[in-house]
Queue: 4 jobs
Job 1
Amino acid sequence: MAVYQGARCRMCRRAGMKLFIKGARCYTDKCAIERRSYAPGEHGKTRRIKETNYGVQLREKQKVRRMYGVLERQFRNYFEKAAESKGVTGEVLLQMLERRLDNVVYRLGFAVNRNQARQLVRHGHFVVNGQKVDIPSFLVRPGDEVLVRERSRKLSVISNSLEARKGQTAPAWLELSPERLGGRVLSVPTRDSIPTPVNEQLIVELYSK
């Protein structure tokens, strides 16, 4: 699987907003957006480009893709499944991305960012309904219980993440059980409970051409 090897803060500067790719750093004054809010590159400060409708739609799609760490082909597959499902296509697309196991691990606070959550899932540190799942794209469903595996409960990366994100609450569609080092999926997330600052309708318009 292809992995982006470039500077991750550059993605946020290109998007013009925080994508929270680097976890705790994004909440400090070390964040690239806080220090250099202009676009990356030699002419980032002076560049004045009038974007077309296509450019605006493409930028919005790239924001979501980079935020969730999904490659283009996989993102396109999510869109096609969302388009075939009942409901508003853009909202269903975000619901599917939110229900990915790596995102659920991140939302519950067991990782400081989605990249770290993806790595923890791949290494088999979580179980869903008692069964080990090491596929980051696994889609959880209402009623599913996600727990840290017994042998992984003393991992410093998990305890450090929980400490770093202390005070942050899980979204309404998830229930966190700190004492059990796990959580439960209460429902399919609604758009209001997905704190993703994007206009998903622009993505629908982009792929509908």
Job 2
Amino acid sequence: MTEGLGRLLLVDDETPVLEVLSEYFSAQGYAVQTAGTGTDALAAARRDPPDLVLLDIRMPGMDGIEVLQRLRGIDPSLAVIMVTANEDMALARETLKIGAFDYVSKPFDFRYLDRAVSAALVHAGALAPVGTDEATTDTLRGLAFQVFHATRGLPPQARESVGTRLESAVLELMREANAGRSMTAEAALAEVELLTVIAADLGDLTPAVHSTLESALASARKALSHV
């Protein structure tokens, strides 16, 4: 696989689902490989290690839970997002305890799915700026982590409005920095700063979380000024 935005392994026993996901993520610029069984997924992960696995929970034979556990044995740092039907949401939440980064449900909300994949890649260190020193990379990744940590703590209504825009903006920052486009990266950072101010003014951020975000934003601004 070529690098692209990241290397994805899509695992599902339903061929139409794999075709839709593969077409979508390939068009976004990801390098994609697919597997229709748990056994094939483990073989693919060993043969050509991905940055992220999108893994269906319900599969015949080796199910997604067992595949997740075995993937953790191959690479404990590998980002895995579970895919579930609505009736399996409780089971999906349990997978977070054994190492899944997140879970998404069918039918897919592709905006949420895109953010979840990008967030997992940032968390795993696969989506990081190129042409920058290690300190700058760590600074921008740290900002992304703090933003997602903050949005997960927002009240539901705020998460659906300001929170999703914050997540999208910081992921756009990482993508633009990853592509070496400093001007558009700075524009995305400015959007993160504005949305942080709005969330704080509305009382959606606690003073402690707001202070942490402000510190991370200041560090990111300083880091981008040297790129």
Job 3
Amino acid sequence: MSETKPWGSYTILEESDTHKVKRLTVNPGHRLSYQMHYKRSEHWMVVAGTATVTLDGEVHVLTYGQHIALPVEVKHRLENKGTEILEIIEVQYGTYFGEDDIVRYDDDYER
């Protein structure tokens, strides 16, 4: 299953009671909302492009093969400041994986 978003798109690669795996594609110059989750942690691995990740206000720049853990209830944002497509493999783990477990603090698309 794939879904288009204002920042790019995501595709669900695998889904179970214990985890969900997605491929996120972020278009150049776009970013996801600054957000957090109550019921899941996430782990992001860069498979194409360069990711700018904000994790509780601290900025990390990740390139191919690098990864970062996003613990439950930690504010985070993914951004593509580059000119090429950014692709991330996201592994979610926790007790619930619904899209309604998102608390947004800042969103370029006013969601």
Job 4
Amino acid sequence: MTVPKITLLAGDGIGPEIISAGRALLDALGPFEFEEALIGGASIDEHGEALTSEVLERCRGADAVLLGAVGGPKWDTTDPDSPRPEQGLLGLRKGLGLYANLRPVRPLAALLDASPLRREVIEGTDLLVVRELTGGIYFGEKERQPEMARDDCVYTRIEIERIARTAFESAQRRAEGGGSARVTSVDKANVLETSRLWREVVSEVAGGYRDVELDHMLVDNAAMQLVASPARFDVIVTENLFGDILSDEAAMLTGSLGMLPSASLGGDGPGVFEPVHGSAPDIAGRGIANPLATFLSIALLLRHGLDRHDDAARVEGSVEAALETGLRTPDLATGADSEREAGSAEITAAVIAAL
């Protein structure tokens, strides 16, 4: 049996800490072949660019890529000619053809009281944000002059069609257990031409998925509904910028950004799996970073990258089991008597023991 090859991109800030924890979890599942490489600020310091062509090729040759986090104040700049850590992430997505970002949001029972929203508001929430990754304003033509700046937002029919199919097929899979399949397409069609094309194309694609209900929602209303009535959503599909913002908002339903995983998928190449939280340089090196979003990203890696669905379920169950013991990293702690604050190493050991 071929041993899966996983490229580890630790990145910056707490990235090396959570990737180290993730590798320990993968070792418990094993066997895997690991290859480590630089991305983001760490790559800028070493090579002068956030993603080298050599690292991109190494990622192409892997079965899956596990990424930590990129960025930090050390590399913040308004100079358009200076490299930025985030360019490494965008380049990786573009270079691997990763056009679909999946971000599941399901508050765990043990953390219902850790959310800033009331328990009764978030109970029953189980949604999936499907974000288009390679089009839109992030990749449009850019211009910077002393008195003006411009970022073009461009979408093609083909880009919208493929992400819409991903959303409808995801809704079908989620409904296989007997639930209803529903896609909410989020846009700004009352203002933007790109959103009008988006709505038109998504509606056309929906014709091939008669078993999936489709509704359209303006992005400002979607932002409000996510905090007012999150359980109403099943699958949300939206463009790059809106998806970036809405998925981070949705993350807080789980109690912390430190709980939200993601999978970036495309065609025939490997997927990139990463926690949604940032590099958190303020807590780097203190041993308190929350590794659970990384563990849940590993579950997505196992499910979508390696087709190991049973192992993915084992990892998710082990995270829940560790939380049920009352262990909490500082970002999850509410001060309840049933909780005990734990560092990265202790909660990692608890999850591996449950596994």
